[in-house]
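Notes to self after the call with IL:
- keep both proteins in one doc
- input above output, always
- annotate only the second one for now

Protein 1:
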Amino acid sequence: MATKKFLYINRKAPHGSIYAQESLEVVLIAAAFEQDVSLAFVDDGVYQLMQNQDTAALGSKNFSPTYRALGDYEVNKIYVEQESLELRGLAKDDLMPLVYEDEDDDWAEKDSIHVVSSAELAEIIEQQDVILNF
């Protein structure tokens, strides 16, 4: 039986609701069970990957360092919509570096984040078997 492709689309800001943290937990669980997992960050979801998040003033735990574990779970298809970044005055350099080790390339460290246009993201969505929105 072929493995189904799962795409988790993150649209919400990282704090103020449970969507971002719940999505990350579900992704890690799915990846632990060796599912083919991809993530997409659109709209305010791009803020989830911002570097140097400080949640002290919010009184909530900063879970963003957990994104760095994705590579250890072989989650290396992380798509960020270019238009969402631009509308928020952000660039890829504003995002935390997320990498994985490519066993097919002598364990070279490679970037997991792929900035794609909305048209490219639409094509990626078309190729998925299961889509979950957060």
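Protein 2 (the one to annotate):
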Amino acid sequence: MMFQNRDELKKGIDGVLSVTGNGVAVLNESKLRDRLIDRLVYTAVFCDDEETKTSSRWLIRRAGAALGILSSSIQSLYEAMGRKEVTGFTVPAINLRGITYHSAQAVFRAAVDGKVGALIFEIARSEIGYTEQRPAEFAAAVTAAAIKTGFAGPLFLQGDHFQINAKKFAQDPSAEVDGVKALIREAVAGGFYNIDIDPSTVVDLSRATIKEQQENNYIINAELTELIRSIEPAGITISIGGEIGEVGGKNTTVEEFRIFMDNYLEELNKIGGMKGISKISIQTGTTHGGVPLPDGTIAKVKIDFDTLEKISEVARSEYGLSGAVQHGASTLPNEAFDKFPPTQTAEIHLATGFQNIIYDSDHFPAELKQRIYAYINDKLRGEKKESDTQEQFIYKTRKKGFGAFKKDMWDLPAPVLGAIGKELENQFAFLFGRLNVNNTKDIIERHITPVDVPSEPPAALQ
């Protein structure tokens, strides 16, 4: 399926792709979509030869650019939302933990059918680790899926929860912040022009005032904002997200938001007065992945839509932000999703629900699931809490099977991948309808001007 070395790669693209300076010419689009893109993406993900893997990733990204698929920042749209010129929908940000090339195709099929343009693909700092997907790989897989399905237009790739680890920060603050900075540099180099900073983990609610509680948060946000602005490619303003309340903690208040923003902006003024965040993530009652009950089912939660609406309004009216962001939402009941656009929620993050569709599909091989669960019971037993039932333990840890069994999942028979992909596509189409992002392609075209960032070909292709 994949190319083993650069000679095979060069021979394989002959007559279909041609390297021209810093770009790629698509000589035969039908052959690219029919077969070559599959081989390129498998090489980009699984090839043992690093030179060939890197070359495949470059070819995918540059072939995408030639077809009008360009990594972009959503900043201009969010600025228009901040001016209240654009409203009425909530942008879905989709985390793809497993079978990314095939899952992304399901997203794009639904997007093409619904003429969806307002759509983000993202991966969190923690997910990068346990799903074994570095930013460059994730970008290549999503771009390849866009090529395969005929999607064209701005491609919004986002670093989700580029988060400060509270325990590591307590031990060595500088080292932990430097770790996030290194990831930001890697992500931006890989085409991620939307970055969500998350030092909400080091908010200290034991301190006397809200300003003191949020101090670490707004100072680190400003420091990381400065870094991002310093490494932006020419012509691109990266969309940066901030976060006040850690998801799963206490609900956020309007007062906390104002105090955070005022002090964050003051910190930015001290270091040059650069453009700040475009949105703010808050806590409204959800938990990442949902709360599994003893039988493995998910507890129902009550979202504080009133807080979402109030903070979104203050964010727009007083600070020019796009609004509030809802995390941990993919496991909500279906009837909840059409409530987000009326509250002017700017963005909603969706992850675990898609993971559940894959694992719980009748088409997912029982033998593979048994091997994954056996691995979890063997290798991850130390993560089981005394209070967890077996069902709760499996539910909370099976996300880590996507990395350990990545190739097994990608190598599933085509009919199996197709059937699971159809289930995912149906859910994406449902969500796009409820979040009111169908027919937003024209809106994106009006507000986003994609910029082609030059990229020299790897030595193997020169």
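Annotation: Residues 414-434 form the longest helix (21 residues). The CA atoms of residues 35 and 148 lie 9 Å apart.
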